[in-house]
Design a protein that fits this description.
20 strands, 6-stranded antiparallel barrel, 3 helices, mainly beta, single chain
């Protein structure tokens, strides 16, 4: 999982037993190797944002495609995220922030656990195109979160899309309703680190397992996207369309097999592959099928395949 160590420790304090489970893997954990960054308790504020090219080298903002910048991304405690807009969203709908399921403040959901409509007062630091902090947005609830089949969280905000645009000049990032393409050039935009990673989609993973969690049809990056702790929840943007096609969540740090911070790939025949140093994301094209007018979650909508909560999770 790509969450800073301080965020993981905070989760443990909040009571996430999953984090300490020796039997289960972890999706978006924080790097703890010698190459890992120090783990600040709040987002860093560099003098200028940085970018990592497809060759894996840091470049200046002028070298990046103009279509991809930081506008609409957010930083939240230990993770990254973005204000996203569904194809059916209207300007007066309450805006949504997307991040990882393992980034929610109650702690990492266990395998099989789904959170819906849970009250939240979490805040998010909104960035403009140049990665300047322009506002603090506030949630009313966690509309949806899980680490089962995918690793996603969706927060509903107090502000509408029109209000955010009028007050801060920021448009939400459009969420694609189409399956991403193998070979597509992508940008992973971290609001936490104010850094953009550029690479391509190397392929898709039938099943990916990390500890107790299993994800379906995950996105595998080419090696250039060396995402680090704090990039969990970053939007993955298709450079050609400017739309969000996935959410960054994990990577294999030590070459271990299916353990926390070391996800493994499993194909249709059950064969397991370990790719040390390779990072991954979870697709998001299915999310729009689970929301009705007004950005209202409706898991009973035709075509919605997001996991549903058990009766005891409906709180």
């Amino acid at each position: 999982m790509k969450r800073p160590l301080v965020g993981v420790l905070a989760t443990a304090v909040l009571g996430s037993a999953a984090l300490m489970s020796a039997a289960g893997p972890a999706c978006a954990s924080s790097p703890t190797t010698a190459s890992s960054p120090s783990s600040p308790s709040s987002p860093p504020s560099p003098s200028s944002p940085s970018f990592v090219s497809s060759a894996g080298q840091q470049t200046t903002a002028s070298a990046r495609p103009k279509a991809v910048d930081f506008a609409g991304t957010v930083a939240l405690g230990g993770c990254s995220g973005s204000v996203i807009r569904l194809p059916s969203s209207e300007g007066d709908d309450p805006a949504l922030v997307m991040s990882n399921g393992h980034c929610i403040e109650p702690g990492m959901p266990h395998a099989g656990e789904v959170v819906v409509d849970r009250p939240s007062t979490r805040t998010f630091t909104l960035l403009d195109a140049k990665a300047n902090s322009v506002a603090t947005l506030k949630a009313t609830k966690i509309a949806y979160a899980t680490m089962t089949d995918t690793d996603i969280s969706l927060y509903e905000l107090t502000d509408t899309y029109d209000q955010i645009k009028k007050r801060y000049g920021i448009k939400a990032l459009p969420l694609s309703a189409a399956h991403p393409r193998k070979g597509a050039a992508i940008s992973v935009v971290s609001g936490y680190w104010k850094k953009i990673y550029s690479c391509a989609i190397d392929g898709f993973v039938y099943r990916m397992k990390e500890g107790e969690w299993t994800w379906k049809d995950s996105v595998r990056y080419t090696p250039a996207c060396q995402t680090i702790g704090g990039t969990s929840g970053s939007p993955v943007i298709d450079d050609a369309t400017g739309k969000v096609v996935a959410v960054n969540n994990t990577g294999n740090e030590d070459g271990e097999r299916c353990t926390f911070n070391n996800p493994c790939e499993i194909d249709e025949k059950g064969n397991v592959t370990v790719r040390k140093g390779i990072n991954y994301a979870q697709q998001t094209y299915g999310i729009p099928r689970c929301f009705a007018d007004g950005n209202k979650l409706d898991l009973d909508r035709p075509g919605c395949r997001l996991p549903r909560p058990a009766e005891d999770d409906r709180r």
